[in-house]
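Customer escalation, tier 2.

The customer says the design service returned an amino acid string that "doesn't look like it belongs to this structure." They asked us to rerun it and document both sides in this ticket. The original C-alpha cells are below, unchanged.
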C-alpha cells in the first residue's frame, strides 16, 4: 500500500493544478486545441485524488481551517454555495449547443429530406445505411424512428450519410 505523504501528494496537487489552470483558461477563452479538453477532464480526476491525499497528509492544518477563523470558514461556505448553485439552470432553461440542435434536426427529419443534403438520393441513402446495419424502411421514416432513438446508431447513420466516400 502506498504511504500518503507530502513528498508526493503536494507535487501531484501542484502539477495537476497547473495543467487544470492552463487548460481551463484555454477552454474559457475558446483557445483550446488538440487534447486540451481531454487532458483537462482526466487530469481533473487525478487532481481530486491528489488534493485528497494532500489534505490527508496535512490533516492537522486542514482541520484548523474548519475549526478556526471566520475568513476560512466563510470562503469554504462560499465555495460550497457556488458549487450548489452550479447544479441549477439559469432562468429561461438550458438551450442545447448548435451542433446538438443540428444533429437533432437531421435525425428527426424524414430521410427523404436528409438524403439530398448528403448528396445522395433517398434510395442510395437507404442502401448505404443498410450496408452499415441501419434499416430505414422508407424515405418518409426518420433516422430517429429507424434507430429506435438509439443515439449511437444515429451518430453512425449521420457518419455514413455525410462521409466523403459515396
Amino acid at each position: 500500500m502506498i504511504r500518503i505523504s507530502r513528498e508526493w501528494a503536494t507535487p501531484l496537487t501542484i502539477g495537476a493544478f497547473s495543467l487544470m489552470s492552463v487548460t481551463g483558461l484555454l477552454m474559457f477563452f475558446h483557445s483550446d486545441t488538440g487534447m486540451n479538453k481531454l487532458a483537462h477532464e482526466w487530469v481533473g480526476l487525478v487532481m481530486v485524488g491528489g488534493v485528497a491525499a494532500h489534505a490527508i497528509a496535512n490533516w492537522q492544518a486542514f482541520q484548523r481551517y474548519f475549526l478556526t477563523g471566520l475568513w476560512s470558514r466563510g470562503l469554504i461556505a462560499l465555495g460550497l454555495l457556488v458549487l450548489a448553485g452550479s447544479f441549477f439552470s439559469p432562468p429561461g432553461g438550458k438551450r442545447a449547443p448548435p451542433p446538438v440542435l443540428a444533429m437533432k434536426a437531421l435525425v428527426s427529419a424524414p430521410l427523404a429530406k436528409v438524403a439530398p443534403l448528403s448528396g445522395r438520393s433517398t434510395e442510395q441513402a437507404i442502401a448505404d445505411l443498410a450496408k452499415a446495419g441501419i434499416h430505414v424502411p422508407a424515405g418518409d421514416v426518420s433516422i430517429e424512428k429507424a434507430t429506435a432513438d438509439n443515439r449511437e446508431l444515429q451518430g453512425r447513420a449521420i457518419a455514413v450519410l455525410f462521409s466523403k466516400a459515396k
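Tier 2 assessment: The sequence is consistent with the input. The chain has two domains: 6-85, 98-162. The CA atoms of residues 20 and 44 lie 7 Å apart. Sent an explanation to the customer and offered a walkthrough call.
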